[in-house]
Amino acid sequence: MNKKWFAPIPPYLAVWAGLFLLKNAWLALICFHLAVLFSLLVLRSDVPVEILFKSKYKKWAIASVILCGLSGINLYFFWNMFGVANTLLLQLKSLGLNSSSWLPFIIYFSLVNPLVEEYFWRGFLGDATNTLYIGDFIFAGYHALILWGRIPLLSILFALVFLVTAGWLWRQIRREDEGLLAPVLGHMTADFTILVCILVKTL
Question: Is the dihedral of CA 102, 107, 111, 116 positive or negative?
Answer without folding.
Answer: negative
